[in-house]
Amino acid sequence: MRAVKAVRAAAPATVIALGVFAAVRGAGVLVLTLGSWWAGKDPLRVLGRSWDSVWYLGIAANGYGRTQMWPSAATGTGSIQSDYAFFPLYPALIRLVGSVLPGGLLPAGILVAWICAAVAAVGVYRIGEWVIGPRAGLLLVGLWAALPHAVVLSLAYTEALLAALAAWALYALLRERWMWAAGLAVLAGLTRPTGLAVAAAVSVMALYAILTRRSRAPKVWAAGLLAPAGWAAYVVAVGLRVRDPLGGYFAVQQAWGSRFDFGAGALRSAERVLTGGHVPLATTVTVVLLAAAGLLAMLLVLDRTPLPLLAYTAILLLIAYGGAGFFESKPRFLLPAFPLLLPVAAVMARARPRTAVMVTAGLAGLSYGYGLYLLLVARVPL
């Protein structure tokens, strides 16, 4: 442990946090690479062309306009999947990096995701340091990197980008940097549908400042009004493209099978698991993780967590619990909800360092195994 203390004394805390994240996720990438080779698959394609990654790369290469129909033998019709369901910021970054990076769009998509994950890890540490202290902040980063679905942070997916924008927007809110928070919220709203949670946190805090502090500062009002602009702009743009300005985007999502049903679909899936129905392992794990997220959310409230983190996490949970379709993807949707881990990190910070390291390493090992299962074995969408 003396060596650990020496490193902490010599290196900035953010560098150590980044090292913790790189160690956990780097080992995960190595395990996934070896597993892919063993399964006879190209690791680069597993990292860059799994499920939704194909859509993002397609948008980066050719722009929007692709549709895909999946016929249904039961109904004689089928679902029509449109790439308008995917928000534009990540494909735009892939296209930008791919224009200067050798190898084309596939490595560019992976590189963008990895850089965003690293930026997110530093932001997660900063929030943990601010709320529960430096040591707990490091543990927060390690726990986040070892979540069951953390393999997504290594794929060409948008969760790393959203987590980076969310973490730094929330950190800006904690420090009352209103326009920084609003600008990052706009970008988060252009990243994926759940980016609305970042905008909600900014707008809620602006409203709170106006009502409780009688704030008349123009930047507070501007931040509250500007924050949802990115999300709203894309939703309206898709609506105009499909000739239904207000409802077009939601019609696109419904065609994918995604809609808000106030949790009815999630309850049906949980019932099948609890009654011993024949369900995939991913479904059972999803039910367990959603239940754990609910318990952690209650602990967040009891711990008097700062309001921006509560508002952000609450919207992510509302979307995850209340949305129908792609049930097994819900833990992925909650991957940017890192504030849920604050109570666990706070408890682990009071344990012996060796115990905390062993617990984190054990969770990381389980995460590596489950990541292999999700990408190489499971037949459910990630």
From TrEMBL:
<feature type="transmembrane region" description="Helical">
    <location>
        <begin position="105"/>
        <end position="125"/>
    </location>
</feature>
<dbReference type="GO" id="GO:0000009">
    <property type="term" value="F:alpha-1,6-mannosyltransferase activity"/>
</dbReference>
<keyword id="KW-1133">Transmembrane helix</keyword>
<dbReference type="GO" id="GO:0004376">
    <property type="term" value="F:GPI mannosyltransferase activity"/>
</dbReference>
<dbReference type="InterPro" id="IPR007315">
    <property type="entry name" value="PIG-V/Gpi18"/>
</dbReference>
<feature type="transmembrane region" description="Helical">
    <location>
        <begin position="220"/>
        <end position="240"/>
    </location>
</feature>
<keyword id="KW-0328">Glycosyltransferase</keyword>
<keyword id="KW-0472">Membrane</keyword>
<feature type="transmembrane region" description="Helical">
    <location>
        <begin position="178"/>
        <end position="208"/>
    </location>
</feature>
<feature type="transmembrane region" description="Helical">
    <location>
        <begin position="281"/>
        <end position="302"/>
    </location>
</feature>
<keyword id="KW-0256">Endoplasmic reticulum</keyword>
<feature type="transmembrane region" description="Helical">
    <location>
        <begin position="356"/>
        <end position="376"/>
    </location>
</feature>
<dbReference type="GO" id="GO:0016020">
    <property type="term" value="C:membrane"/>
</dbReference>
<keyword id="KW-0337">GPI-anchor biosynthesis</keyword>
<feature type="transmembrane region" description="Helical">
    <location>
        <begin position="137"/>
        <end position="158"/>
    </location>
</feature>
<keyword id="KW-0812">Transmembrane</keyword>
<protein>
    <submittedName>
        <fullName>Uncharacterized protein</fullName>
    </submittedName>
</protein>
<feature type="transmembrane region" description="Helical">
    <location>
        <begin position="309"/>
        <end position="327"/>
    </location>
</feature>
<comment type="pathway">
    <text>Glycolipid biosynthesis; glycosylphosphatidylinositol-anchor biosynthesis.</text>
</comment>
<dbReference type="GO" id="GO:0006506">
    <property type="term" value="P:GPI anchor biosynthetic process"/>
</dbReference>
<feature type="transmembrane region" description="Helical">
    <location>
        <begin position="333"/>
        <end position="349"/>
    </location>
</feature>
<keyword id="KW-0808">Transferase</keyword>
